[in-house]
Design a protein that fits this description.
Structural class: alpha+beta
Number of domains: 2
CATH topology of the largest domain: 60s Ribosomal Protein L30, Chain: A
Radius of gyration: 28 Å
Length: about 190
């Protein structure tokens, strides 16, 4: 208890300060205990048991090709890549034929899944190119869905400018890097 002066009335004993301190300590203890809960949080929109699009199942992905040194070697798998204009993510008319062919193959192989990888050239910031690659991958996914491929069989990822096929600083080289790659998994 502490003594507090209350104007002309003299000194009064008060325990309010101690109550506030006790409440603060209790709240901290509750937060610590709640933060150390052993329950694992549920993942929202988790793919369920063992996602079939994990790295171990995607030998045709740009990342696995990069890791084993075969990126750009022409081993693209059963689906063809499409290309984009500078700072653009719209599907070009000539790529519509490629996507129709890709959709036909996917519809003929219903057990297969595909990951659409959005890639960019080296110009622009890393953040900008990651966002642009995501828009490119999503545009191709949307197009495949309109052609009858189930959206549940298609995932997207953006590599931005991180996995170039060509490293020369020419327009032809940059055009090769502005692409969507289709990595198939079972």
């Amino acid at each position: 208890m502490t003594r507090v002066q209350r104007g002309r009335g003299g000194w009064v004993s008060s325990s309010r300060g101690m109550v506030g301190a006790r409440v603060a300590v209790m709240l901290c203890a509750i937060l610590v205990v709640a933060g150390c809960s052993s329950k694992k949080a549920k993942q929202v929109n988790a793919p369920g048991p063992a996602s079939p699009l994990g790295e171990q199942n995607q030998n045709g992905s740009s990342l696995s090709q990069f890791q084993n040194g075969s990126l750009g070697s022409g081993a693209n798998g059963p689906l063809s890549d499409i290309h984009f204009g500078y700072n653009d993510y719209t599907i070009q008319p000539q790529d519509g034929d490629v996507l129709r062919s890709n959709a036909k193959w996917l519809n003929d192989h219903p057990q297969s899944r595909v990951q659409v990888e959005g890639h960019c050239d080296e110009r622009g910031s890393e953040d900008y190119n990651i966002a642009l690659g995501a828009k490119r991958a999503q545009a191709a996914k949307d197009y495949l869905v309109t052609l009858g491929v189930s959206p549940g069989r298609i995932s997207t990822i953006s590599y931005g400018k991180e996995l170039p096929i060509c490293t020369e600083q020419t327009e032809d080289c940059w055009a090769q890097n502005r692409r969507d790659h289709f990595a198939v998994s079972q």
